[in-house]
Amino acid sequence: MNGGGQVVCVTGASGYIASWIVKLLLLRGYTVRATVQNPTDTAETEHLLALEGAKERLKLFKADLLEDCSFEQAIEGCDAVFHTASPVKFIVTDPQLWYPLSKTLAENVAWQFAKDNRMDMVVINPGFIIGPLLQPTLNFSVEIIVDIVKGKNPFNCRYYSFVDVRDVALAHVKALESPSANGRYIISGQSVTINHIKETMHELFPNLCIDDPNGEGEMEGINCKMCVDKVKNLGVEFTPLKSSLGDTIISLKEKYLL
């Protein structure tokens, strides 16, 4: 148990990535302070409280990103903080709340804050994330898989890059446990065509009805390759896309989301 005796905070703990981080931390012996918007909402908390080790080493705190000093109680006295709380909004009236920009601005501010306060900070930058869900509700990145099954191409792209949520969670924990971890870590899988994704789904689930939009409105896009050697050096081995897709669809079916 790597984290025996250490107390850590996970913000936005009911979210897709954060729930897996909490699960992994508990399995590794950490005491976890988890922030959620509403601790009395079972949709937010039930899957967290059911995790192995939660009864002994998980405590929930109410916190909201839009409330000043909202996270102080949860963070006070912690050895480390996993700050995963983030609004995911792609249709907005204020451009600075638009997800890609808000994430960039927030990271820039965080780097400056860490520098000014001599804090050790590491950033994990994932691509589109898939894999099994712990939470009972559908999140944005897994919804892409649901859309593809329904014959949609959510971004009208030819190429997509996915990474497994379990790998992303492990990268977060490894970044804490590796003294040499530093800077930014890109974690994303191989770029594949949307047709390859559909073919893989059909191979795994022959009876799954996958509508075909015949490529209408599809942009050519760029088949890019990202260097992920740095995150692999943390000890993260990537889950094959076929396994991730299979586990995602099984999870969606089990939760009646597909």
Order of strands in the sheet with most strands: 3-2-1-4
Rg result: 19 Å
Total strands: the figure is 9
Largest sheet features:
4 strands, parallel
Terminal CA distance reads 36 Å
CATH class designation of the largest domain: Alpha Beta
Low-confidence stretches: none
Number of helices: 10
Helix content, binned percent: 25-40%
CATH topology of the largest domain: Rossmann fold
- What would you say the CATH architecture of the largest domain is? 3-Layer(aba) Sandwich
Mean pLDDT: 90
Order of helices and strands: EHEHHEHEHEEHEHEEHHH
Instruction: Give the percentage of residues in beta strands.
Output: 15-25%
CATH homologous superfamily caption of the largest domain: NAD(P)-binding Rossmann-like Domain
Class from secondary-structure proportions: alpha/beta
Principal-axes geometry comes out as globular
Number of separate structural domains: 3
Could you characterize what this model shows?
With 258 residues, the chain is an alpha/beta fold. The protein has three domains: 1-85, NAD(P)-binding Rossmann-like Domain (Rossmann fold, 3-Layer(aba) Sandwich); 87-119; 126-258, NAD(P)-binding Rossmann-like Domain (Rossmann fold, 3-Layer(aba) Sandwich), CATH 3.40.50. The chain has helices at 16-27, 42-49, 54-57, 72-75, 99-116, 140-149, 165-177, 194-204, 229-232, 241-254, and strands at residues 7-11, 31-36, 58-62, 80-83, 122-126, 128-130, 159-164, 183-187, 191-193. The strands form three sheets. It has a four-stranded parallel sheet with strand order 3-2-1-4. Strand 6, helix 6 (140-149) and strand 7 (159-164) form a beta-alpha-beta unit. Helix 1 crosses helix 7 (165-177).
